[in-house]
Amino acid sequence: MAGQSDPHISLFSAQEVEFLGEDEMVEIVPNMRMDPLNLICGDFGPFRPQIATQVPLWLAVALKKRGKCTIRPPEWMSVEKLTQVLEAERNSLREFQPLPFHYVEIARLLSDHARDDIPDVYMVRSLIEDIRDVRFHKVETGLETIHERTHAVKLKNLSAMEANIVRPFVVRALQAFYKHDSPEMIPQPDTTAIRRRQAADRGPKRDRRY
Amino acid sequence: MASGSEEGSGFPADDYESLIATTDVELLKRAWRNEKAAPEILHFQTALVQRSREQIQLMEETVEEFGENGTDPLTVSLYQMDLDRTQFLLRSYLRIRLQKIEKYMFHILKTDVWSRLSEQEQKFAKRCTDDMERHLEQSVLSRLPDGYQSILKQSVASEEDDMVPEPRLDTFVFCKSKGSIEAFQLDDSKEVVDLVADDLYILRYNSVKPLIESGQIDLV
What we know:
The structure holds two protein chains of two kinds. Chain A contains seven helices and six strands. Chain A has helices at residues 14-21, 57-65, 79-91, 103-113, 121-144, 160-180, 192-200, and strands spanning 25-30, 37-39, 42-44, 53-56, 69-72, 152-155. In chain A, helix 2 packs parallel to helix 4. By secondary structure, chain B is mostly helical. Chain B folds into three domains: 1-103, Methane Monooxygenase Hydroxylase, Chain G, domain 1 (Up-down Bundle), CATH 1.20.58; 107-114 and 130-167, no CATH class; 168-220, Ribosomal Protein L9, domain 1 (3-Layer(aba) Sandwich). Chain B is built from seven helices and five strands; from the N terminus they run ααααααββββαβ. Chain B has helices at 16-21, 24-37, 46-69, 73-103, 105-110, 119-139, 205-213; strands spanning 172-177, 181-185, 192-195, 200-204, 217-219. In chain B, strands 4-1-5 form a three-stranded antiparallel β-sheet. At the A-B interface, helix 1, strand 2, helix 2, strand 6 and helix 6 of A face helix 2, helix 3, helix 4, strand 1 and strand 3 of B.
C-alpha cells in the first residue's frame, strides 16, 4: 500500500528502490504499430515495427510481456564489459567502478522478463552477481574502518540498491560514533596542527574511496 | 501531456535548464524521496500537488473515454499503468507526511513546523492532538498526582516540554548534489568539504537542510 512500506518512515523498501529504477530509459524494438503515448510522465512513440525507440523500463517490460517488442540490453550489460568491470572491482580495494545508479534493478528486471533478448544471459547474470558480491564485500570492509566520529562519508559510484541495503546500519553506526566520540566527552590534545592540514585538503574528512 | 513546471517549487532561478527539463512526475518523485528520507516534515508542495492532482484527474477521464470508445486494451493498460505509478507517488507522498504528523503531532503544533503543513493537514493535526490529549487525560493523566498531569511536561518542575517527541535533525542522510558545491561548511564542526556533482554522500541532515530546501541537494 502506498506509504506503508516500513514502520520506520525513512527507510525505502527494495520494491520502492526498484520503482525508482523502473524509470530508467531503455531501447526497445517494437514488432507492431502503435500511436504515440501521451502519458503523465512523458510522451513516447510512435511505435513502428523494427524501428528502435526509447522508453522507460517499466513500459518496456510491459510491452515485452505482451510480446510486442524486444528489448536491447544496455551497452554496459554485455559479457565483455561486465568482465572488465568485475576485474577492475577485484583489483581495486577501495574504489567502486562506475556503473549505472540503478544497475541492480535494471539487470534484475531485464533478466527476469527479457531473458531471450540478452546474449549469453546466464553468463551476464553470473557476472553481475559476482560484481555485486565484490562490491558489497568492499562496502563491509570499508565500514569496518570507521572508528571515530565522522562528519561526512563519500560513496563514489555506489548504486541505489547497495546504498539502500547498508543505509540502516550506516546511519545508526555513524550516529553512535557521533554521540560517543564527542570532543566534549574526551579531552582532546592540541589539534590546531591537524586543522591546518585539513584546510588544504577539502574532501570529506574520511574520504572513503573504498 | 508531460507538462513541465515553470514555477519551481523552491528551485534557484539560475537553474533554468533543469527547471524546463523537469516534468511534474520528476518533481513529484523528488518530493517523495526527500520526504521519505528526511527526519522531519518538509514544506508542503502545494503547487506541485495541485498540478499532479489535475493531471491525474484528466488522465482518469481519458482512460475512461478509452474504455468507452473501444481503444485497444494494450494502449488502455499502458495509460492505466502510468496513471497508477503517478497515483502511487502522490499517495505515498501524502501518507508519509501523515505518518510524520501522527508521530510528532505535539511538536508540530507548538513550533513553526506548523506552517509547513497544508490546510487539510493542519486540520488533521489539530484533530490528532485533540483526540490524543483527551485520550491520555481520560485514561492516565487525570489519575496521576497533581503536578504530573501535563501532556507536554513530565512534571511541573520541568523547564521545557520534555514529553513532546521531536524529530532527530542530526541524523545522517544519504544525498547527492546536482552541481558541485565548494567549501560547504559542515554545521558546527570546523570542517569544510567540497561536494562533487552526482556523487553519493552521507551527511548530517542539519548540515544539508538549507541545500535541500533550495533544491541543490537531493536525498536518496
